[in-house]
TrEMBL record:
<feature type="domain" description="ABC transporter">
    <location>
        <begin position="7"/>
        <end position="229"/>
    </location>
</feature>
<protein>
    <submittedName>
        <fullName>ATP-binding cassette domain-containing protein</fullName>
    </submittedName>
</protein>
<comment type="similarity">
    <text>Belongs to the ABC transporter superfamily.</text>
</comment>
């Protein structure tokens, strides 16, 4: 049921200049739910993230957070109210070490290191020298310490080493346990499908199918990507 959703996009139309990319997107994420938004290149997934985070204005439709219409809210106001777009939620200082980065906002980074051993091993290294995945883990550390209400991640596992992806998805799983509503966007239905509770397929600027992960089989995946669903 859409009514118990914490975060919703309703009939969102948006684009760039004269180009309409989103043609009526409906999406709903509940507390403690992982929604995987899947679709081919150019389907409009990144544009959906931009609208959700408040980085792009809609030309029609609404964005609703916990029953409040936040469509006109700028990104910083949505962020303050707990809508976090990863990994841009909080910047990393490339010249500071991992430990110094964490200590800019956290008195004792111990709990972060416990959950993210990959970062613990790199604590003395300049953040700018980390791999992309490690930097992503570092930007997600605040979410672990103080969970957002809604976390949106665009292609979180893209180009990351398997070990880092594993840790990243452990972070997402923990956030789900703690009641965060997660919208995870991926092009390919790989690791994210294992974590997802709900799957939404996107094609040509619309969500063409939404349903429980259990109903997603190979036939459904093929149909979704080929556009026959
Ligand atoms: P990808 O995985 O390739 O990022 P996507 O599903 O995330 O695909 P979007 O990035 O949302 O899709 O792009 C959807 C369409 O919008 C594409 O046709 C793309 O060319 C266009 N588009 C994206 N960003 C811009 C922009 N800043 N200006 C103009 N057109 C854009």
């Amino acid at each position: 049921a859409v009514e118990d959703a914490l975060f919703r996009l309703e009939g969102v139309v948006a684009g760039y200049g004269d180009v309409t990319v989103l043609r009526g997107v409906d999406l709903a994420v509940r507390p403690g739910e992982v929604v995987a938004l899947l679709g081919a290149n150019g389907a409009g997934k990144s544009t959906t993230c931009a609208v959700a985070a408040g980085d792009l204005r809609v030309t029609a439709g609404r964005v609703v957070l916990d029953g409040t219409d936040v469509t006109s809210w700028p990104a910083h106001r949505r962020a303050r109210e707990g809508v976090l777009l990863a990994p841009e939620g909080r910047g990393v200082f490339p010249g500071l070490t991992v430990d110094e980065n964490l200590r800019t906002w956290l008195a004792d980074p111990g709990p972060v290191y416990e959950r993210l051993p990959q970062l613990a091993r790199r604590r003395g290294l300049a953040a700018g020298a980390l791999s992309g995945g490690e930097q992503q883990l570092l930007t997600l550390a605040p979410a672990l310490v103080r969970p957002p209400r809604v976390l949106i991640a665009d292609e979180p596992s893209l180009g990351l080493a398997p070990l880092v992806v594993e840790q990243l998805f452990e972070v997402f799983a923990e956030l789900r346990e703690r009641g965060v509503a997660l919208l995870l966007v991926e092009e390919k239905a790989t690791s994210v499908l294992e974590l997802a509770d709900t799957v939404a397929f996107m094609r040509l600027g619309r969500v063409t199918w939404t349903g429980p992960r259990a109903e997603v089989d190979d036939a459904r995946l093929t149909a979704a990507y080929l556009g026959v669903s």
